[in-house]
Every structure is written in structure tokens, then in C-alpha cells.
């Protein structure tokens, strides 16, 4: 077991880090990670991006504007977003923010 104290990490610059990646026999890898967004940071810098795995993102701290194709929502600490594989999306930090994410499927 690995324990990560994510709430204690400082937000200084945009940071996206994979914490763990596991690949149960016969399946695709499941990855989890941490992202730090200083106020105003956007991923991607312009436009929208997608990936071929489902994403679950949990906002630990802060406030993010998340765009999923044509829909934009504001997420605050305690909110989670589920993004389907290949769905176009982007995130922009409205204030310093910390996010725990999981990619799977």
C-alpha cells in the first residue's frame, strides 16, 4: 500500500503526475495521479483534448471550470467529474486547485 498526502502538496506551477499504474492480467492499465493547477492554468493550453480511457477526476481543493465538448461546468472541492473515453474536454483553474484523477477502461 502506498499513501499519498495530496492535500498537503503546494500549488506552484502546473503539474500532472502519475502516482500509480497497475495492469491486472489481461486488462488495460489503470492509472491514478495528481494534478496541481495554479490559478489561470489551462489543460490543454488551447482547444480540447481527449484520450482513449475513461477519466474520473476528484477536486481535492480549489475551483475548476471544466468544458466537456459543448458544456461548461464549475467544479469545487468535493466534486467529481466522470469523462467518457474519447470525449473532448479541457480544464481551467479559477483558483489554485488540486485534483486526484483515475484513467481506466
Automatic annotation (TrEMBL):
Domain Cupin type-2 as annotated: residue spans: 46-102
Pfam families: Cupin_2 (PF07883)
Name assigned to this protein: Cupin domain-containing protein
InterPro entries listed in its UniProt record: Cupin_2, RmlC-like_jellyroll, RmlC_Cupin_sf
Domain of life of the source: Bacteria
Gene3D superfamilies: Jelly Rolls (2.60.120.10)
Organism: Parahaliea mediterranea
